């Protein structure tokens, strides 16, 4: 088997890269270790930046997103039992976020890929990367009970944080930056109409809480919990009680309850490897970097990476230019570190840290008051939250 680009992983990064390459006339094979059903039902991110939406629409996979996505022009910050509105669009020239599940983006991309007859292999196993430090990379794997070798020009490691691609790079060639946080998020998906139009990020003495949604019928909610939290200790009634306590402010606004469709605990970490390239292997998305979900940046970073990679590969094949490929890591890391800072800042602003010193609590309070009182500070939050334009990070 032979292709131009072997793409490992069918998450948002791998699928969108495959899609953009297809549009540029570049062959790729996408291989994924889980089933199609699994990746289409995996509940994760829900907030798409303006640039992510623009790219999906411009590349022909935005039809359902435009029809079903919920466009939001603001978010609320809740503290001291009061909600404070942050306008996202005013300070950003009309940019906004769109709430549309990551798994819906994945479904749209898989549908486009299958309609085009582009090779997509689910339930592969034993994926191993070879020869990417030279000119003849290949990927070996098992699929349908047989071993295969896929020869290629480039490998795109889009296999997430627990994938094999980053691990295939000699450790001495990578610099790792990481921070873990002393808490996690307990997330639920509930069959209940969202009781508010916009997202609510709550700083509460009992811990952080987030009110979000997926559709006019489905509410998505998160609670700060311990990193080793046992879901068995969290029957639905306890989760609702805690959500009511952290999100309601005594002004009559009530959260709508409904059957809990899904429950999970997500650890919180920041993690970056540099560079995002080794020879002919390019890392993209969670394979190269993780942010805590507080800033809603993970999937959007994955999208920005593969946009840069697709453009660089198009320049390689179409114009025999390799300057964009050579600059890939540096270009992506500028946005990555901006998002790492923003996600860390939002996380530090809104969570209770175990054993938190009173000094830190006062700093959080001062920052919350500043962000909600100062138009300049609110604009900084807004421009980061809706996502800085791609061009911001493209200069040399
Ligand atoms: P993914 O989605 O993890 O996809 C990687 C794919 O690779 C497959 N794979 C392999 N395939 C073949 N061989 C192997 N050896 C393989 N090993 C793994 C996996 O099965 C998988 O299909 O990474 P990608 O594409 O880089 O996408 C990144 C995003 O998924 C992630 O950053 C976001 O979900 C993060 N995130 C959020 N991001 C946002 O932009 N906005 C949000 O609102 C947001 N909220 C969140 C989030 C992540 C969360 N969790 C569960 C971590 C909320 C949560 C709770
Ligand atoms: C979500 O809807 O899942 C969501 C929204 C905002 C975040 C993280 C997750 O910051």
TrEMBL record:
Coiled coil: none annotated. NCBIfam families: pbenz_hydroxyl (TIGR02360), PRK08243.1 (NF006091). Its EC number is 1.14.13.2. Pfam families: FAD_binding_3 (PF01494). It comes from Cupriavidus basilensis OR16. Residues 2-343 form the FAD-binding domain. One of its GO terms (molecular function) is 4-hydroxybenzoate 3-monooxygenase activity. This is 4-hydroxybenzoate 3-monooxygenase. It is an enzyme of class 1 (oxidoreductase). One of its GO terms (biological process) is benzoate catabolic process. Keywords: Monooxygenase, Oxidoreductase.
């Amino acid at each position: 088997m032979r292709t131009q680009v072997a793409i490992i992983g069918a998450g948002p990064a791998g699928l969108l890269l495959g899609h953009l390459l297809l549009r540029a006339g570049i062959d790729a094979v996408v291989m994924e270790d889980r089933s199609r059903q699994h990746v289409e039902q995996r509940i994760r991110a829900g907030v798409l930046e303006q640039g992510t939406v623009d790219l999906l629409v411009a590349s022909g996979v935005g039809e359902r997103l435009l029809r079903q996505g919920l466009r939001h022009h603001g978010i609320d910050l809740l503290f001291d039992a009061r909600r404070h509105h942050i306008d996202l669009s005013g300070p950003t020239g009309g940019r906004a976020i769109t709430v549309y599940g990551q798994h819906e983006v994945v479904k749209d991309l898989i549908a486009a890929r299958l309609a085009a007859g582009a090779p997509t292999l689910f339930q592969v196993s034993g994926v191993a990367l070879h020869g990417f430090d030279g000119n003849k990379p290949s990927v070996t794997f098992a699929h349908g009970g047989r071993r295969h070798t896929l020869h290629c020009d480039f490998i795109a490691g889009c296999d997430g944080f627990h994938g094999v691609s980053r691990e295939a790079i000699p450790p001495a060639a990578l610099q790792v930056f990481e921070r873990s946080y002393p808490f996690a998020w307990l997330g639920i998906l509930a069959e209940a109409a969202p009781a508010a139009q916009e997202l609510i990020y709550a700083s509460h003495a009992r811990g952080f809480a987030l009110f979000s949604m997926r559709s006019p019928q489905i509410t998505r909610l998160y609670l700060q919990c311990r990193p080793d939290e046992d879901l068995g200790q969290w029957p639905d009634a306890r989760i609702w009680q805690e959500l009511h306590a952290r999100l309601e402010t005594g002004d009559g606004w009530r959260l709508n309850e409904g059957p809990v469709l899904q429950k999970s605990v997500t650890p919180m970490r920041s993690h970056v490897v540099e560079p995002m390239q080794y020879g002919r292997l390019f890392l993209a998305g969670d394979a190269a970097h993780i942010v805590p979900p507080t800033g809603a940046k993970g999937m959007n970073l994955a999208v920005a990476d593969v946009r840069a990679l697709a453009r660089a590969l198009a320049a390689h094949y179409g114009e025999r230019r390799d300057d964009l490929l050579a600059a890939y890591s540096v270009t992506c890391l500028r946005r990555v570190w901006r998002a790492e800072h923003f996600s860390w800042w939002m996380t530090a602003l809104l969570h209770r840290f175990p054993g938190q010193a009173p000094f830190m609590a006062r700093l959080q309070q001062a920052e919350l008051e500043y962000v909600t009182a100062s138009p300049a500070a609110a604009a900084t939050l807004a421009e980061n939250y809706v996502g800085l334009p791609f061009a911001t990070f493209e200069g040399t």
